[in-house]
Amino acid sequence: MPPRKRAGGQTELFTVSSTKQIQDILWKAADKLRGSMDAAQYKEFVLGLVFLKYVSDAFAERRDKIAESLTDLPESRRADFLDDRDEYTLANVFWVPENARWDYLVENAPQGVGELLDEAMDAIMRENPALTGVLPKIFNRDNVDKNRLKELVDLISDARFTGHGDRPAQDVLGETYEYFLEKFARAEGKRAGEFYTPSSVVRVLVEVLEPYSGRVYDPCCGSGGMFVQSQKFIEARAGRDHTHDIAVYGQEQNERTWRLAKMNLAIHHMDPVGIADRWADTFSDDKHPDMRADFIMANPPFNMSDWARRESDPRWRYGVPPQSNANYAWLQHIVSKLGDRGSAGVVLANGSMSSKQSGEGEIRRTMVEADLVACMVALPPNLFRTTAIPACLWFLTKDKGPQGAKGLTDRRGEILFIDARALGTMVDRTERILTDDDIARIADTYHAWRGTKSAKAKNQTYENIPGFCHSATLDEVATHDHVLTPGRYVGASAAEVDPDAVPLTERIEHLRKELYANFDESSHLEKVVRGVLGRVDV
Amino acid sequence: MSEWRKTTLGDLVTLQRGHDLPSSQRIPGDVPVMGSGGVAGWHNAAKASGPGVTLGRAANLGVPALIQDDFWPLNTTLYVTDFHGNDVRFVYHLFQTLDLSGYNSGSVQPMLNRNFIKGVEVTVPEPAEQRKISATLAALDEKIGVNDRIAACALQLADAYFELAVDGIPAGPETFDSIAQVGGGGTPSTKNPAFWGGAIAWSTPSDVTALRVPYLFDTSRKITDAGLDECASALYPAGSILMTSRATIGAFAIPQIPTAVNQGFVVVTAPDENLTMWLFHEMRDRVDEMVGLANGSTFLELSRKNFKAMNVRLPAPEVVKAFAEKVAPLHKRASAASAENSTLIALRDTLLPELMSGRLRVKDAEKVVEDAV
Predict the structure, then answer these.
(1) What is the pLDDT of residue A388?
(2) How many helices (H) and strands (E) does chain B have?
(3) Domain termination residue (choose one: A444, A460, A488)
(4) Which of A326, A348, A386, A430 is nearest to A186 (CA)?
(5) Which of A225, A239, A343, B90 has the fewest beta carbons under 10 Å from its own?
(6) Distance (Å) from the alpha carbon of A382 to chain B's nearest alpha carbon
(7) Following DSSP, what letter does each residue of A61-91 receive, concatenated?
(8) In this structure, is residue A516 part of a structural domain?
(9) Is the same domain home to A280 and A388?
(10) Would you tell me which CATH number, out of the four given (3.40.50.1100, 3.90.220.20, 3.20.20.70, 3.40.50.1820), belongs to the domain B170-314?
(11) Which residues of B fall within a CB distance of 8 Å from A419?
(12) Any bridge partners for residue B7, and if so which?
C-alpha cells in the first residue's frame, strides 16, 4: 500500500536537508496565498509569519537554557526564573506571552487561525516596546483564505529550521527572511526598488567601507539590507562576538517597508530601536538630526523629482539641489551626517556623475573642490532588476589624510576612479550579479589606494591600470569640467595579448582564402540562379 | 504539367507540440533549441531530426522556421513530425505564405492549437513540382547568403589590414576635429507634413543598426527640401562616415547616396577618400573608448564635443594612401554584394507568393534546353 500523502508539501519537508530547499518549498506554499491580496500586503503577511516563528523559537531556546541552569533549584522556585522577563531581555530575546507562542498557535489553530495570529502579534507588541506598531495585524481578514493560511502555519512549524550544522534555528530563520525579501523583490519587479538593493551591490559598499565598529547609518534604509550585510561582514572577519561592535541607525519613509526593516533587524539580533520610531521622510522630518556616523551606506531612489525641498535647509552647504532631482540632496544630506573621519558609499544613477542641469554641475564642482569625493565606481548594467538605468557608486569622506595612528596613504587632492563596467556575470537574460572575485577586485583596488590595514595585510600596493582604475588629481578632474565618469580617467584598456590568438598575418591569410572561396561559390551560384530564373515561366 | 490539388494542413503534414526544456536544464552542445522566435539556445540532445520545420505557437503565431540539422523544438512551437513525402522546404515556404495568426485559441496569452489549424485548406502540387519550386527559391537564398558572407569577410579583411597598418602608431596631436569635418543632425518638425515624404534620404540610428554591413543604400523616412532647410542636419555626401552616438554608440554606415541624419549621429566628412578609409577604421577600432567618454542618465550619449577632441592615430600621407588603396576595393566589393542582395531579396519576395500559389510555374529543365535551342 502506498504511504498516505500528507498535506501540502509536508512529506517533502521531512526529507529535505538544506536550508535552501526548505526555503523553496515554503516560498511555493506561501505563493499559493497570493491572489486576492496586493503584493505589498502579501509580503508583510508572509514575512510577519516568519518573524513570529523566529521570536517564538528564540524564546523557547532561551527558556530551555534557563531551565538547564536551574536544575539545582527546587521545583517551586524554577517558575519564577522561567517567567522573569529580565532573563530574556538581557539576552536580547523578546518576551513572548503564552498566547503568542508557536505551540499554542498550532494547537489552537482549528478555532480560527487568523484571529489567533492577530492576537499573538498584538500581545508581542504590547510586551516589547521595541516592536510597537511594527508587526502586521492582517491575518483575520475576509480576503485571507483560512485553509491556505493554516497550511502555511503547518508548513512553517514542520520546516526543520534546527539541526543544520552548528547554526542556531534563528540564523536559518534570518536567512529565510532575507531569501523571501529577495524573492519578493524579484516578484514585484519595478516597484521593489524602494525596499531592496541587490546583495552584490550592497556587498561592494560593505567590502570597500569595512564597517568594523562604530555607528552605521542609512538615511533611506529600505528593509535594512545594508545593516544585515554589515553584520555579516563583521561576523566573517572578526567573529560573532564582535557583532555588537556596530550600532545601526536608519530611516525609511514607506510604512510597510519600515515594518520590514524593524523585523529584519530584530531577526538578525540587532536593536530595532536604531530605525526611528516612525516612518518618515528624511528631507522633511530627519529622525537623526545629531548623527555623526562612522559609516554611511545608502541606495536612495534614483533621480527622484518628488521630494520635500526647502531652499534654506542648512544641509545644502555646497549649493541648493534642484527640485527636479534629489540626487545631490541625498549626497549633501549624507555629507552632513558624516563624522570627521567617517566614510560613506552611495548608489546613484549614472547621470549624477556628469549632469550639468539646474546647477548640479556647480554643486559637484564645489564638493570635489572641498575634497569630499574619495572614489567613483562605474557599475556594469543590469545589476538592478528594477531599472535599466546604469548606476554608479560614490564614496565620500571628510578626511583623505593619513588619519594619525591608522597610517593611511595620504590621498588629499586625489580621487580614485574605477571602471567596473566589464565585471559581472549574467545569471539570466536580464540580471547580472557581481561575483566574489569581482567584489574583491573593486574592494582590493580601493584598499590598496587608501593604504588600509587590510591592504597592508595582503601586501597590496596601488597602481593605475589602463581601462580599470586611475588615481586623478583635482587639477586633472578640473580639466574634465568636474565630470566624474570613470571612463574618462581610466582610458582604454591595453590590448589584451591572448597567447593563443592567431597571429595577424595568419588571420589575414585565412580571411583572404575564405573570401576567395566565397567568390568562387558566388560565381557558381550566379550560374545556378540564372538557370532557375530562366525556368520561371513568366 | 502536374495538377495542383486541394488538401488540408492536417493531411499535408503531421504537427506536434514541442517539448519543454528550461534553460537551467540545458547542457552545452551544438543542437539548436527552437523557440517561437527561432533559435532560442543550445543543448546536447535533439528531439527531432533535420531538416525540419517549426511554427510559432505561443508567440509569432504560425511563423515558420526551417532547420537543416537535428534540433529540439520547445513547447512554444509546433513542429512537423511527418512530411508525408512532401518537400520540406516547400512546406516551409507554404507556411510563410499562410497567415495563421487568426487561429489564436488563447484567451490571455496568444496560443496556436494544432487542432484548430488541421482543417486549413491549401492547394499544393505533386512532390516533384514542389522540389522545382523550392530549388528556385533555395538558389536565391543561397546566393543571398554567400553575398552576405562576402561582404562580412571583405570587411573583416579590411579591419585586419588596419590593425596591421596602425600597429605602433601613437595617438598624435591631431584630433577628429582638426583633420575632418565633424557634424551632427536633427529632425524637422514631425507636425509639419510639408517637411516629410520628399526625395531626400534622412537617416535615424535604427536604419544603421539594422544593417548587416555598413553601407546605407536607402532610409526608411525621407524629407523634403523644406524639411532639410528647417532641420539642423546638413545633406552629407555619399561616402561620409555616419556613426550612431546615443543609446547604441558606434554603429557605422557609409551612405551610398547623399543623406541627412537625425540627432543620434556623429558624422565625419574627410577631405579626401583616402583619409575617409583611414578614419572609418580608426573610429571602428575605438568604439570602447568612445563609450567610456559618453555621459547620460537614461541612456549613454557621446557628445560631439567629446568626440571632436579625441586624438587620432595618423601616419604619414603615403601610408594612409597605401592603406586606402588596399582596402577601398574590399569596401567596393562588399558594398556591391550588399547592393546585389537588395535586388535578390526583392526578387525572392516577389516570386515567393506567385510560385507558391501556382500562378507562376517552373518549367522542366528539358524544356529550358529546348527553348534555348
Answers:
(1) 66
(2) 12, 18
(3) A488
(4) A386
(5) A239
(6) 13
(7) HHHHHHHHHTTTS-HHHHHHHHT-HHHHHTT
(8) no
(9) yes
(10) 3.90.220.20
(11) 292
(12) B122
- Position A13 scores a pLDDT of 52
Cα A112 to Cα A104: distance, rounded to the nearest angstrom: 12
Q: Say if residue A138 is in the same domain as residue A238.
A: no
On whether any CB of chain B is under 8 Å from the CB of A238, the answer is no
DSSP letter, residue A268: T
Vertex B160: Cα angle to B156 and B162 (nearest 5): 115
Interface touch B295/A353, C-beta < 8 Å: yes
Phi and psi angles of residue A396, each rounded to the nearest 5 degrees, phi first: -115, 150
Residue A19 grid coordinates: 536550508
**Domain extent at residue A439:** 189-488
pTM, rounded to two decimals: 0.64
pLDDT per residue over A502-536, tens digit each? Answer: 777 888 888 888 889 889 989 998 998 898 888 88
Q: State how far the Cα of A477 lies from the Cα of A302, in Å rounded to an integer.
A: 24
The parts of chain A modelled with pLDDT lower than 50 are 1-10, 163
Please state whether the peptide bond connecting residue B51 to the residue before it is cis, i.e. omega within 30 degrees of 0: yes
* CB of B296 closer than 8 Å to CB of A352: no
Is residue A260 a contact partner of residue A252, using CB atoms and an 8 Å limit? no
Cα A156 to its chain centre, rounded Å, is 25
Cell of residue A462, nine digits: 596601488
The alpha-carbon gap from A56 to the nearest alpha carbon of chain B, in Å, equals 38
- Which residues, 6 or more positions from A466, have their beta carbon under 8 angstroms from its beta carbon? A490, A491, A492, A493, A494
Residues A383 and A455 grouped into a single domain: yes
Q: Residues A160, A198: one domain?
A: no
Residues of chain B contacting A534 with CB distance shorter than 8 Å: 368
Q: Check if B144 contacts A (Cβ < 8 Å).
A: no
SS3 A519: helix
Query: Cell for B108?
Result: 490571455
Cβ–Cβ contact A303 with B under 8 A: yes
Residues of B in contact with A353 (CB under 8 A): 295
Q: Does residue A423 form part of some domain? A: yes
The secondary element (H helix, E strand) that includes residue B14 is strand B14-17
SS3 letters for A227-247?
HHHHHHHHHHHCCHHHHHHEE
Chains A, B: CB contacts under 8 A, how many?
Answer: 110
State the smallest CA–CA distance between residue A422 and chain B in angstroms. 11
For residue A182, the number of C-alpha atoms closer than 13 Å in the C-beta half-sphere is: 13
Residues A158 and A208 in one domain: no
Cell of B305: 564635443
What architecture is the B4-124 domain classified under in CATH? Alpha-Beta Complex (3.90)
> Which CATH number characterizes residue A72's domain?
1.20.1260.30
Check residue A499 and give its pLDDT.
Answer: 56
CA distance to A32, A82, A145, A173, A267, per residue, from A139 (Å)? 15, 30, 9, 20, 20
Strand ranges across the sheet with B241-246: B181-183, B265-269, B241-246, B248-255, B215-216
Q: Are residues A84 and A140 in the same domain?
A: yes
Query: Residues A221, A263: contact at Cβ < 8 Å?
Result: no
Across A146-155, A206-215, B93-102, B115-124, least confident range: A146-155
* Same domain (yes/no): A423, A469: yes
Instruction: Give B200's DSSP letter.
Output: E
Of A492, A504, A525, the CB nearest to B288: A492
Tens of pLDDT, residue by residue over B187-216, are 999 889 999 999 999 999 999 988 888 999
- The pLDDT of residue B373: 37
**From CA A72, how far away is CA A8, in angstroms rounded?**
45
| Chain A residues 346-365 with a CB less than 8 Å from chain B | 349-355
| Number of domains chain A is built from | 2
Give the residue range(s) of CATH 3.90.220.20 domains in chain B. 4-124, 170-314
In a domain, A525, yes or no: no
Among residues A132, A167, A202, which one ends one of the domains?
A167
